[in-house]
Amino acid sequence: MTPETGSTEMWKITLGELDEKMGVKILEESVDRVVATMPVEGNRQSFGLLHGGASLAVGEAVGSWAAVIHASTLGKTAVGVDVSATHHKSAREGLITITATPIHLGGTLTTHEVLITNEAGQRLCTLRITNLLLDRKG
């Protein structure tokens, strides 16, 4: 769901197919912060650990949603141009929390830090994502 071209209505998150398959739930959405959760179960690799690719996929989604929310207030949209991640700790079970906060909110680029934590609040992964802001096509 995208606001009309030229509108500065704040965009509301709509889950994609992968987000739904991964069990992502949105808890909070604003320009200042996007928070989601995802179960470890169903997102593990063959050794029983949270899959690093699942962490990247959900982290990129949450960071991109944060960028699109900001872009929508400017009448624009956002596309990802760079994402990097560092895995600090693994998880075998439970619910992870994914939180995106802005590092830079510009008119051309945004950069967000995305933290993935376990239920004990321990940092599992840190991502940084940069998005390019573009005019919406009519």
Short key terms for the protein model shown above:
elongated; alpha+beta; single chain; 6 strands; 138 residues; six-stranded antiparallel sheet
Structure in a nutshell:
By secondary structure, the chain is an alpha+beta fold. It contains two helices and six strands; from the N terminus they run αββαββββ. Strands 1-2-4-5-6-3 form a six-stranded antiparallel sheet.
Describe what this molecule looks like in 3D.
By secondary structure, this protein is α+β, with helices and mostly antiparallel strands. Helix content is 20%, strand content 41%. A 6-stranded antiparallel beta sheet has the order 1-2-4-5-6-3. The radius of gyration is 15 Å and the shape is elongated.
Write the layout of secondary structure elements.
Elements: H1 17-22, E1 25-29, E2 34-39, H2 52-72, E3 76-87, E4 95-105, E5 109-117, E6 123-135
Antiparallel strand pairs: 1-2, 2-4, 3-6, 4-5, 5-6
- Work out the strand percent: 35-45%
- Total helix count? 2
Low-confidence regions: none
Report the C-alpha radius of gyration, rounded.
Answer: 15 Å
Structural class by helix and strand composition: alpha+beta
- Strand arrangement within the widest β-sheet reads 1-2-4-5-6-3
**Would you list the SSEs in sequence order as H and E?**
HEEHEEEE
| Shape summary | elongated
**Quick check: average pLDDT?**
94
How many beta-strand segments? 6
How far is it from the N-terminal to the C-terminal residue, by CA? 14 Å
Portion in helices: 10-25%
